[in-house]
Amino acid sequence: TEMKLVKAIIREERVPYVQKALAGKNIFGMTISSVMGRGNQGGIHLQYRGGILNIDLLPKTAIEIVVHDDMAELVKDQILSAARLGKEGDGKIFVIPVHESYRIRTGDVEV
What we know:
This protein is α+β, with helices and mostly antiparallel strands.
């Protein structure tokens, strides 16, 4: 069966909610990274010591989960509902095909 990589870039503070939502569906395997980025909001502008400070890149968290094709929709839906605040900067989800996966310990193909 084909597999999918579900990659989500979300607010750092939403990570525990996403982990809990996925664990509730028996999805535990994931890679989490701290990343910097910007989307349509183009960063933020803060008033600082009498001037405007432009912060172009904001801290975000990237979550990567590889699942079988039939689970990708479920993972996407769980992330959407757990990460959404309804504001700019909530993030993005990408669903990417995975053609092959290998377990390093054994060399087994996991497709």
